[in-house]
């Protein structure tokens, strides 16, 4: 029996960093404009003068593309922050983004809104690309503080530091109709999180 020749392996052409950044910016712009549910690969392809085939070669689908775009957009990370004190680390974290960036981030969260809770694939992609790496780095930061003797290992607030940070970021637009900024978040860290940690 004759056998079919093996099919050629599909090569995944690597985008240049500039082109990748352009695609991510377009994804985030559409997300702010219409929200996650109305964002389509067709719209991204049209906005970036790409083909859908190109997009699907680089990303498995819309959830991964959106998660990677958000990761790329993030102005900083806990990775590499080590000022020698937990207060210094938290201040360094909140000072990484300027006010304009935080306003954009607030608009992005509104654009994701309902979809995060109703789309399991998006939720999974966001956890893998954004949430879990940051939680790992935050755990490391808090372990260092325990190791230095700054924090008691059994402090009940330690597991809730990420919750408190996210709460401060999300609550200001809701309560004050203003985007959070570095000044607000720095005061929030000093008034809420540092006392909770007993520093």
Automatic annotation (TrEMBL):
Q: Does the keyword Secreted apply?
A: no
Per UniProt, residues of the HTH tetR-type domain are 17-77
- DNA-binding positions are 40-59
Q: Which PROSITE patterns match?
A: HTH_TETR_2
Source superkingdom: Bacteria
Keyword entries, A-Z = DNA-binding, Transcription, Transcription regulation
UniProt cross-references to InterPro entries, sorted A to Z: Homeodomain-like_sf, HTH-type_TetR-like_transc_reg, HTH_TetR, Tet_transcr_reg_TetR-rel_C_sf, TetR_C
PANTHER family given in the database record: HTH-TYPE TRANSCRIPTIONAL REGULATOR RUTR (PTHR30055), TETR-FAMILY TRANSCRIPTIONAL REGULATOR (PTHR30055:SF149)
Query: What name is this protein filed under?
Result: TetR/AcrR family transcriptional regulator
